[in-house]
């Protein structure tokens, strides 16, 4: 019947054909729009079940509601996963995908590739990715009412997933070979940076009880360290602010011993910048950054450390801490100089005690201590096989 009517009415030119075409588009949605409808239904279900669970006080009912919430969450993620495979994959295959869609699919398969070797990382990263895809979709469509209801659930899940990732990376640090450890550090800082830039602003906005005052202060430090185009040393400072922020947000997922290792890693990175600096200004900036890192490492981290593997290290730190406190009694014009002296002497001692081969660094630090008048250099010379040889003797006051 439709074919006959097409022949009789010449539907390419008639008003009737245009109406029929529009109705067909409404009644027969594309695979993509159908999936979006399913995602919306599943999203509404998971939000409803999340609030039912969090607002319930009865333990027995809460347990039942938790099961419903978890089931709804699984179905919700499956719907987003199906959308990616049905929509993005076909678009990329047919060469009709945008650069954003191509990147999104590439990232998806990068995460899937983790499944065999790093299952826990895959599990957390995939959930994080799927949630983020839907959140970005809601944000781009400016669905403010839906976002307002969605945000609590979204932040709650992202908190859990980031804690899981950081705990997993903490375990990897102790179990990996040296060549793999650098990649793990990179993953830790990348996770912290993504959380600080994408999730934390939402969490701060949702906070109504003022229990994030210290977190907000640390977040502002991170923001200030992230302004503009960052050079190598700026990135070191940014990482330092992220470690300090992690002490408030991820204390159990990123325990003190791992935070300590992260500090040592960025100090090592900063030292390499200082040694390889091609000009004096860069070397001077890296040196200033080192002093700031040493102060933060001791004040922000070691001062909160409860368990020490070696009692003698605890005693050494107590001595250092006492000297650091005494600096407050010195007039401000001399305080910075005395602080540098304390930090350099302590750091030289640390390098030697841990057999870290950094003679070039130690030499630079000794030169600085000489300038401060802490070390006296007495030049001496003696004759060896007809030639005079100069030798320097360093004496510490």
Structural class: mainly alpha
Q: Helical proportion? A: over 70%
Question: What's the helix-strand series?
Answer: HHHHHHHHHHHHHHHEE
Largest sheet: 2 strands, antiparallel
β-strand number: 2
Strand order within the widest sheet? Answer: 1-2
Task: Please give the count of helices.
Answer: 15
- As residue ranges, the low-confidence spans are 1-32, 388-393
Strand content is: 5-15%
Question: Main attributes?
Answer:
single chain, 397 residues, mainly alpha, two-stranded antiparallel sheet, 76% helix, elongated
Write a concise synopsis of the structure shown.
The protein has 15 helices and 2 strands.
List the helices and strands and how they pair.
Blueprint: H1 2-9, H2 15-27, H3 31-55, H4 59-93, H5 99-112, H6 119-140, H7 144-175, H8 178-206, H9 213-225, H10 232-249, H11 256-275, H12 280-301, H13 311-326, H14 332-353, H15 359-371, E1 375-384, E2 387-396
Antiparallel strand pairs: 1-2
Describe this structure in words.
The longest helix has 35 residues, at 59-93. The chain has a two-stranded antiparallel sheet with strand order 1-2. It is 76% helix and 5% strand. It has helices spanning 2-9, 15-27, 31-55, 59-93, 99-112, 119-140, 144-175, 178-206, 213-225, 232-249, 256-275, 280-301, 311-326, 332-353, 359-371, and strands at residues 375-384, 387-396.
């Amino acid at each position: 019947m439709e074919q006959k009517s097409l022949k009789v009415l010449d539907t390419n030119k008639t008003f009737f054909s245009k109406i029929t075409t529009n109705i067909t588009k409404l009644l027969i949605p594309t695979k993509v729009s159908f999936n979006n409808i399913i995602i919306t239904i599943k999203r509404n279900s998971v939000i409803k079940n999340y609030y039912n669970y969090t607002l319930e006080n009865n333990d027995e009912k809460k347990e039942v509601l938790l099961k419903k919430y978890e089931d709804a969450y699984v179905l919700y993620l499956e719907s987003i996963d199906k959308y990616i495979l049905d929509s993005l994959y076909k678009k990329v295959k047919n060469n009709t995908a945008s650069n954003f869609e191509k990147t999104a699919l590439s990232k998806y398969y990068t995460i899937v590739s983790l499944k065999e070797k790093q299952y826990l990382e895959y599990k957390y990263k995939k959930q994080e990715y799927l949630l983020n895809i839907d959140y970005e979709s809601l944000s781009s469509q400016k669905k403010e009412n839906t976002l307002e209801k969605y945000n609590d659930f979204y932040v709650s899940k992202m908190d859990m997933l980031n804690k899981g990732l950081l705990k997993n990376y903490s375990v990897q640090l102790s179990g990996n070979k040296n060549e793999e450890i650098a990649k793990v550090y990179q993953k830790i800082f990348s996770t912290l940076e993504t959380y600080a830039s994408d999730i934390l602003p939402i969490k701060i906005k949702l906070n109504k009880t003022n229990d994030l005052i210290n977190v907000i202060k640390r977040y502002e430090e991170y923001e200030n360290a992230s302004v503009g185009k960052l050079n190598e040393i700026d990135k070191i400072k940014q990482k330092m602010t992220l470690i300090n922020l992690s002490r408030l947000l991820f204390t159990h997922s990123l325990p003190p011993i791992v935070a300590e290792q992260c500090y040592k890693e960025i100090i090592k990175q900063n030292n390499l910048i200082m040694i390889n600096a091609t000009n004096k200004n860069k070397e001077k900036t890296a040196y200033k950054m080192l002093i700031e890192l040493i102060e933060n490492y001791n004040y922000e981290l070691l001062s909160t450390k409860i368990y020490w593997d070696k009692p003698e290290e605890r005693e050494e730190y107590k001595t250092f801490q006492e000297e650091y406190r005494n600096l407050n009694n010195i007039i401000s014009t001399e305080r910075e100089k005395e602080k540098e002296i304390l930090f350099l002497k302590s750091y030289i001692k640390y390098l030697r005690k841990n057999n870290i081969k950094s003679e070039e660094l130690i030499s630079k630090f000794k030169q600085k201590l000489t300038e401060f008048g802490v070390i006296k250099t007495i030049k001496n010379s003696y004759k060896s096989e007809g030639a005079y040889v100069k030798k320097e003797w360093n004496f510490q006051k």
